[in-house]
Design brief:
Helix content is 5%, strand content 46%. It is mainly beta. It starts with 27 loop residues before the first strand and ends with a helix.
């Protein structure tokens, strides 16, 4: 394969652990997982499905918006900071939001955030409760004040993930229309907006795979971390769900999307990259879940660190190399 070009700022201080000797997996788990335990805060029942980005603030090098389900079992979002991307100081308060119309600002629930940097602004998207799940949107420059804008879509929708630059001069987002429950279906769609308020130009991206082609993603799929721009296309890490005789199983794989028309899928992995196999992924509030929501990467070394929710209880970290993932995705594509 010709040398892969990867967009993004250098990140030599990103969390990293070398591939274990003798291992051949495309991704490997951090040996000290879970990186964030469920009880890091006095009032947290669980901390998972969260988003982190490079951000310099004093002694800190990383910031994040974390899903924290409290001991009332309310789904909320909290801000956190870290020196090394592994040890986190998470605020005990809910993320402070301002600016939204009172109708939109009311809180039913907020969960599964993603954070996308475009220029000097960080955009937060999350599953927002408004007569059912939809996609909430806010922006911040300092991770202290968050400016909430209108919900992106009508209910029902989940897994809203923005691209890290405008496409065709517009903000761009992936999402997964759903229903009010534990959705037993789900396709990924693409949408554009000129102003973060009015979203349109909706395009279908991917459906669940056929069982005979790739069973781990045959029931529903959804976008994971912010897509990474490469010379081979947008690298998308996404989750897929299998309905087994013992319930749902959440794994994740990878796809390549066209750079200019991201609703066109260039390649899509048949095998999974990671599936529930360790005790902290198999056992928890919702067993058998590995759910990716964020990644850090260094374009100079090709390294990637993926943060993922484990059994809807705690947060895990896995490592890999983007060039290997891209080549593996193409080699094992089911399209």
């Amino acid at each position: 394969m010709k040398e892969l070009k990867i967009s993004g700022a250098p990140l030599p201080n990103m969390p990293w652990e070398d591939r274990p000797e003798g291992a051949h997996d495309i991704l490997w788990r951090y040996s000290a997982n879970p990186v964030i335990p469920r009880n890091l805060l006095p009032t947290s029942n669980s901390i998972f499905n969260s988003a982190v980005v490079p951000f310099k603030k004093g002694e800190y090098n990383f910031a994040g918006v974390f899903r924290v389900d409290d001991t009332n079992r309310r789904m909320r979002m909290h801000v956190g900071f870290s020196k090394d991307g592994i040890n986190w100081d998470i605020d005990e308060r809910d993320v402070p939001m301002e600016g939204a119309d009172p109708e939109v600002a009311r809180v039913e629930y907020r969960y599964d955030p993603r954070v996308t940097q475009i220029g000097d602004t960080f955009y937060v998207t999350w599953c927002n409760g408004y007569f059912g799940p939809t996609i909430g949107v806010a922006w911040t420059k300092d991770f202290e004040t968050f400016h909430q804008v209108e919900n992106a879509f009508l209910p029902y929708n989940r897994n809203g993930v923005m691209f890290p630059r405008k496409i065709n001069g517009r903000f761009a987002m992936l999402s997964r229309p759903s229903d009010t429950g534990h959705t037993a279906f789900g396709d990924i769609f693409y949408s554009e907006s000129p102003d973060l308020e009015f979203w349109g130009r909706h395009r279908h991206v991917m459906s669940p795979a056929k069982f005979e082609d790739s069973a781990w993603q045959c029931m529903k799929i959804g976008a994971g971390p912010v897509p990474i721009e490469t010379s081979e296309g947008w690298l998308l890490i996404y989750h897929g769900v299998l309905r087994s005789c013992n319930g749902y199983v959440y794994s994740f794989g990878s796809a390549l999307l066209d750079l200019n028309e991201p609703w066109k899928v260039l390649a899509r992995s048949g095998p999974y990259l990671l599936s529930p196999q360790t005790i902290y992924e198999l056992t928890g509030d919702v067993p058998n879940v590995t759910f990716p929501c964020a990644s850090l990467h260094d374009p100079e070394t090709g390294r990637i660190a993926i943060y993922y929710g484990c059994a809807d209880t705690c947060t895990g970290l896995a490592f890999g190399y983007i060039p290997e993932i891209v080549e593996w995705t193409k080699k094992n594509s089911i399209i």
